[in-house]
Amino acid sequence: MATADELTFHEFEEATNLLAETPDAATTRIDQLTPQGHVAVTVGSDIGYGAEDEVEESDKTALLQDKQQPGVWTFAYYQSFFDVDTSQVLDRIKGSLLPRPGHNFVQHHLRNRPDLYGPFWICATLAFVLAVTGNLTLVLAQRRDPSIHYSPQFHKVTVAGIAIYCYAWLVPLALWGFLRWRQGIRERMGPYTFLETVCIYGYSLFVFIPMVVLWLIPVPWLQWIFGALALALSAAGLVFTLWPVVREDTKLVATALLVAVVLLHALLALGCKLYFFQSLPPEHMAPGPQTVSLPTHAPLPPNLPLSTALS
């Protein structure tokens, strides 16, 4: 009579022979003993090796779909727009400073992940630098001419902040709305999202920060050269980024839109130059010594000294 070990060996030998005859077969469970002490072998030719992985992936997908997205009025919704590191911000700043044809800022730098961190701090820094350099210009003018009486103009901080933030939000909003409207007319044209448009404009303003600092040089023609160079770099970045979107439209609409974008950018730079770096207003000039001249035929008062009358 055969022992249990011999029966087990015999079952394994049968399983080996069965697998040799059907190479495509697979065993799913070979270590579980049946109640009678035999080894259970399952043979099948259509069993996939990645079935368990597919089940796990489907479970993860179902969990992600069941997870509710944060609402618009929650802090978690806006937290994702500030989830960027320093290397990403520096890469996007470098991309805005070095525009070139065929190099799309959205595709090569944003990569479908627009952020509000960079545009927010770029606008804040530009507004602060504008106000400070505008006041420093008057301080330097007072040092060159001691007759100038200067008082700090703190209202320039408010004016700069309102002007910069309104431009960085209202102009992209108008541009995005116009492109969305044109998308209904020209279905092939796909505009950027609103956040991508805000991100484009926000990073395009970075080049104005060093331009404003260089405007402290009291040479008018050099200030205009710095302004024209910064405007050319910033406007070129906008044109190269918007061209893939507007080129599907008619030639007239595409040209008019890009010209309007450049003109609005030029008006921003010109307004900053004329308002924050204007010549000293007359009320800040010290009044000069006033002299009283008497007509030659007028009689002299009796108590007026002769030296005063002759002068």
TrEMBL record:
The keyword Transmembrane applies. It holds the Pfam family Yip1. The chain crosses the membrane at residues 116-139, 159-179, 200-218, 224-245, 252-276. It is found in: Golgi apparatus membrane; Golgi apparatus, cis-Golgi network membrane; Golgi apparatus, trans-Golgi network membrane; Late endosome membrane. GO terms for molecular function: small GTPase binding. GO terms for cellular component: Golgi medial cisterna; Golgi membrane; Golgi trans cisterna; late endosome membrane; trans-Golgi network; transport vesicle. The keyword Transmembrane helix applies. It is a multi-pass membrane protein. GO terms for biological process: vesicle-mediated transport. InterPro entries: Yip1_dom, Yip5/YIPF1/YIPF2. Signal peptide: none annotated. Keywords: Membrane, Transmembrane, Transmembrane helix. Residues 97-269 form the Yip1 domain. Belongs to the YIP1 family. This is Protein YIPF.
